[in-house]
Design a protein that fits this description.
Blueprint (H helix, E strand, L loop, with lengths): L7 E6 L14 H4 L8 H12 L9 E6 L8 H12 L5 E6 L6 H10 L3 E8 L3 H6 L6 H13 L3 E8 L6 H14 L3 E6 L2 E2 L3 H7 L8 H17 L4 E4 L5 H6 E3 L6 H21 L8 E6 L3 H5 L4 H10 L4 E6 L7 E5 L2 E3 L4
Parallel strand pairs: 1-2, 2-3, 3-4, 4-5, 5-6, 6-8, 10-11
Antiparallel strand pairs: 7-9, 10-12, 12-13
Helix pairs in contact: 7-9, 9-11, 11-13
């Protein structure tokens, strides 16, 4: 059963724990160096530190094991992690894991525990060539099988995805997005590939054999990707990696920005306005335009660094336009107003 409220998530990091492969984009030990040693007492202290924070005690608690391959842990370590969850009354379990380590024994263990479980599958791509070039060690068939097994076990499934990996193109990334919709995850996280110190991508980058996406390219591609997912009913809960000191220190190259999510969300909204504008056809020839938008969406309509304003000026020229805030409208309200009436793409 899915909790009615958004859970209070306690992140516990297990860098590379249980991973049978070193994927080309990954170096979790540089992102979470303080978690390099998997010591139960350290994990328990970290859990208790989070539990001591001021919070809404009506929210359910989830212990989330990230950074490794949870279902690839040795049985004793897996049981120890389960105990950390069961020591907190009513707590749920969340973990990241590889698709090819989802197995019947683990799923039976979860069912017997009675815990609310969320599995985040590290999928990254549904393109066989991209998976191979990324040294994932499994194919798309393993992803499909993992989804089937988890859903049959009644486990909530998230998908961790990446754009701009070696061998990926704009079209192949968007085909992956469409394929993911067909698999039906409960949510997704999407991030452009970054070059981290000590990773396989760092070696390819140094040799000139890999070029990460430029920032503008990453925003455009990721926006199209996220739009496909959310129009297909898959909510995207995070865009880009969480910004912190370790990431900044380990980043060699790539389209990282602490507000990447807002860049992408602004791009999606701008794309929707321009699509609606294109559907207006002859109705708008040279006429002044006003984009009426809710207070909630005003800054996103303008875009980060007024990026949408620049796009609108180019698309609407020579017609003048303005963005007008509507304070009494719902949070998602926007519409284009012109001399002949109002227009918004019904999609």
């Amino acid at each position: 059963m899915i909790p009615a409220q958004k859970p209070f998530i306690i992140p516990l990091f297990l860098p590379h724990a249980g991973c049978p492969h070193h994927c080309i984009f990954c170096n979790q030990k540089t992102l979470h160096p303080e978690s390099g040693k998997r010591d139960l007492s350290m994990l328990r202290r970290e859990r208790d530190r989070w539990l001591a924070f001021p919070r809404d005690f009506q929210r359910p608690v989830e212990l989330a094991f990230f950074g490794g391959n949870f279902l690839g842990l040795p049985p004793g370590e897996l049981e120890a992690c389960m105990e950390l969850v069961q020591e907190v009354p009513g707590a749920g379990l969340r973990f990241s894991t590889r698709p090819d380590t989802v197995n019947r024994a683990s799923l039976e263990r979860f069912r017997a525990s009675g815990l609310h479980v969320t599995a985040e599958l590290g999928i990254q791509s549904l393109d066989e060539r991209v998976l191979r070039l990324s040294a994932r060690g499994h194919g798309v068939d393993a992803v499909v099988a993992a989804f089937k097994a988890l859903k049959q076990a009644g486990i909530r499934v998230g998908a961790q995805m990446m754009t701009g990996l070696p061998g990926a193109s704009a079209s192949s990334d968007l085909e992956t997005a469409a394929g993911l919709v067909a698999l039906g995850p409960d949510f997704a996280r999407v991030s452009p590939a970054l070059v981290l110190k000590g990773s396989g991508l760092a070696k390819l980058y140094a040799r000139g054999r890999f070029r990460p996406l430029e920032f503008s390219e990453a925003v455009e591609r990721t926006a199209a990707y996220v739009n496909i997912l959310e129009k297909g009913g898959v909510p995207v809960v995070r865009i880009g990696l969480q910004a912190d000191t370790h990431l900044e220190e380990s980043l060699l190259a790539g389209p990282h920005h602490p507000s990447l999510g807002e860049w992408v969300r602004g791009r999606i909204l701008g794309d929707a306005v321009l699509e609606a504008f294109g559907r207006m056809g002859g109705k708008r020839a040279g006429q002044p335009l006003r984009i009426r938008v809710s207070s909630h969406l005003r800054s996103r309509m303008q875009g980060m660094e007024r990026s949408n304003v620049s796009r609108f000026e180019k698309a609407f020229f020579p017609a003048p336009f303005s963005i007008v805030t509507e304070k009494n409208q719902g949070p998602d309200f926007w519409i284009i107003e012109y001399a002949g009436g109002l227009f918004k793409d019904p999609a």
